[in-house]
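Hi everyone, sorry if this is the wrong subforum. Our group has a chain we'd like a structural model of before ordering constructs, and none of us has done structure prediction before. Sequence below.
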Amino acid sequence: MKRIGLTQRVEVIADYGERRDCLDQNWIKLFSDLDFMPIVLPNITQPELITRYLDALALDGVVLTGGNDLSQTNSPRAAIERDEFESALINYCCDNNIPVLGVCRGMQMLNLYFGGELQNVSDHVTKNHIVNFTDGQSYSVNSYHDWGIPEHLLSKELFACGHSEDGLVEYCQHKNKPITGIMWHPERFNQDQGISLTIIKETFL
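Answer:
Right subforum, don't worry. Here is the predicted structure as tokens:
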């Protein structure tokens, strides 16, 4: 059974003075149903500990899940510790040829890591819309993001595989590495689940 690492969002619980790592339980069900072993990853920030931790886990793949804005957006919903961990995680995966799937914020993270940029967008929060794939197919997906990637801001190391009808890149892959990004949430079932499952399987099998 392949071991797939899942990153976590950071939630600030002011009443307890805590910053908590957390993950939607649907992620565990989704990957367990696909016969993968989901491994929940904490937001570690010490570089030497990250490497030892990941070496010990021997992951077969990684998902950069959604939630939190990226620090580059200067949003109050950003979590610098998560940015630091996921940046080191992507670097580790690239060095060790480990497949990565970036979901929503995760795709944004991949684009920034490889030198792309983000743009504030409208009409992409809590709604469904069509994504037109470059192979001619179209699918209805969910949408929960107010930062997006127009074609001209996509990293030169990535190529677009699907666009929303307003021209934003919603699905991309790396030109040379086993890295994929999607802007919708496969763990939430209000979308064409079949294409999400296909992309997950193609990424990790």
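For your construct planning: The first helix runs from residue 25 to 33. The chain has five helices and 13 strands.
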